[in-house]
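Tokens as discussed.
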């Protein structure tokens, strides 16, 4: 008998943690951070105490209670305080592996706490992206997937055993684990390297979509996945449903081409500085703005962090220009001393960027020639506006999803306050979703044609029920189904 347990991320978007037990193997399908649940207890200045290992996360119910799954260093810390709910650290490995669909933290984040003996099966691009993000981020405890500090953190980075590391095994189109075969397919999503999976075993075949869409530049990948998956006559389809209802479904649904066209119109009309705000991991969006900047004869400016990620993606063989490209400029932020002194830029990753000798600009260079640049910027970089001081006629293009939680609405309000003060209000919202629209989700289900449909990663699973009736099984968090 096969089993699927939905530990997390079912009737909400993100935090996916699904356990598939098939032909005596156990695989997790993603092991993400659940932002929504995390927000019940934590915020910017109230965080899980790193000094308490996974204690805070466990007691607040942010990770499932399973023995033999979590890092031994963390479990030992917890059991030394009299809590054996996660075991002693001496149990056998609970799972044979984690299949990680893509590099978004709501699918990958809490792999940080998984034992390093349990391998992560994922694409080379997903691994490269996650490693690059770890390198440039400051708060690492909950998102250190590939290189983590063992707890309790005694000693220093020079002490042997101070760091631990998860191993990624790069997926191939067809993989064998005893009687289980896993077939992997690239799918189109707002981050490159995303995959959908088909698992076949003695008990049947299971399809997991991860996050995907049918309106992006690589829609052919999603189409190929749908058609290929249908050939297995799958018993169960576990499918996302982010856009089944919500703000995006009520208005015209934009494609990446539409973003290119609309952003182009706005950019051509802009006389001052242009800001583009999008996730740097969204390579298609990066290319859209990079190409547009070139077309209108402006230089494309990215921050050092973005430069590091772009450089990593380029190194991983992705089709993005490297940071030495003639049209890319790297923006040097003021750091530490505030005088742009060389010693202020001593981190390894910054040195790596600067050693490549990209063209660099400082705020003053942009301020004095603002109509020559497109500046790639995000919420966390808003302080740069103080140095950039854009003049009237400048424009802020917000090219990511609209606020849908209370916290995001507060952030948006705060961002608007900045934009009002710096001649950038109102901003332009130009975006194409990373997730399939409702009609496309239905098309995916009709094509794959499974016997049972299980919606996850959605606040509106009942929309599938309305379309597909009895075939749909709406599960609650923690539920196990057998097949
Ligand atoms: Zn997701
Ligand atoms: Zn995603």
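Sequence:
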């Amino acid at each position: 008998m096969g089993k699927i347990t939905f530990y997390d991320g079912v009737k909400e978007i993100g935090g996916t943690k699904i356990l598939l037990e098939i032909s005596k193997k156990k695989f997790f399908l993603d092991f993400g951070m659940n932002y929504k649940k995390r927000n019940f207890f934590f915020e910017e200045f109230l965080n899980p105490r790193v000094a308490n290992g996974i204690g805070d996360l466990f007691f607040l119910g942010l990770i499932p209670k399973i023995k033999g799954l979590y890092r031994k260093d963390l479990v030992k810390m917890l059991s030394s305080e009299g809590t054996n709910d996660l075991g002693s650290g001496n149990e056998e490995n609970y799972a044979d592996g984690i299949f990680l669909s893509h590099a978004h933290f709501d699918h990958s984040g809490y792999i940080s706490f998984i034992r390093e003996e349990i391998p992560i099966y994922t694409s080379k691009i997903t691994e490269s992206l996650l490693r690059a993000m770890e390198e440039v981020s400051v708060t690492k405890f909950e998102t250190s997937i590939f290189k983590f500090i063992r707890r309790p953190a005694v000693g220093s980075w020079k002490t042997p055993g101070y760091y631990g590391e998860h191993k990624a095994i790069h997926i191939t189109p067809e993989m064998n684990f005893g009687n289980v075969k896993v077939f992997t397919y690239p799918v189109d999503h707002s981050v490159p390297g995303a995959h959908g999976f088909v698992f076949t075993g003695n008990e049947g075949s299971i399809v997991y979509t991860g996050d995907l869409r049918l309106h992006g530049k690589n829609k052919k990948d999603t189409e190929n996945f749908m058609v290929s998956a249908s050939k297995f006559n799958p018993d169960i389809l576990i499918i996302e449903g982010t856009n089944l209802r919500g703000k995006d479904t009520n208005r015209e649904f934009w494609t990446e081409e539409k973003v290119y066209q609309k952003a182009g119109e706005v950019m051509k009309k802009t006389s001052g500085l242009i800001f583009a705000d999008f996730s740097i991991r969204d390579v298609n969006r990066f290319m859209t703005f990079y190409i547009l900047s070139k077309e209108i004869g402006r230089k494309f400016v990215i921050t050092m962090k973005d430069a590091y990620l772009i450089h990593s993606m380029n190194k991983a063989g992705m089709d993005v220009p490297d940071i030495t490209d003639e049209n890319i400029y790297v923006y040097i932020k003021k750091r530490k001393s505030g005088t742009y002194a060389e010693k202020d830029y001593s981190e390894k990753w910054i040195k790596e960027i600067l050693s490549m000798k990209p063209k660099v600009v400082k705020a003053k260079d942009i301020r004095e020639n603002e109509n020559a640049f497109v500046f790639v910027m995000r919420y966390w970089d808003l302080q740069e506006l103080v140095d950039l001081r854009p003049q009237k006629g400048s424009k802020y293009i917000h090219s990511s999803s609209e606020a849908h939680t209370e916290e995001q609405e507060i952030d948006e309000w705060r961002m608007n306050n900045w934009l009002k003060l710096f001649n950038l209000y109102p901003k332009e919202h130009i975006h194409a979703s990373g997730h399939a629209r409702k009609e496309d989700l239905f098309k995916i289900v009709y094509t794959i044609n499974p016997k049972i449909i299980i919606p996850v990663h959605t606040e509106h699973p009942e929309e599938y029920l309305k379309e597909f009736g009895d075939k749909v099984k709406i599960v609650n968090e923690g539920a196990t189904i057998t097949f």
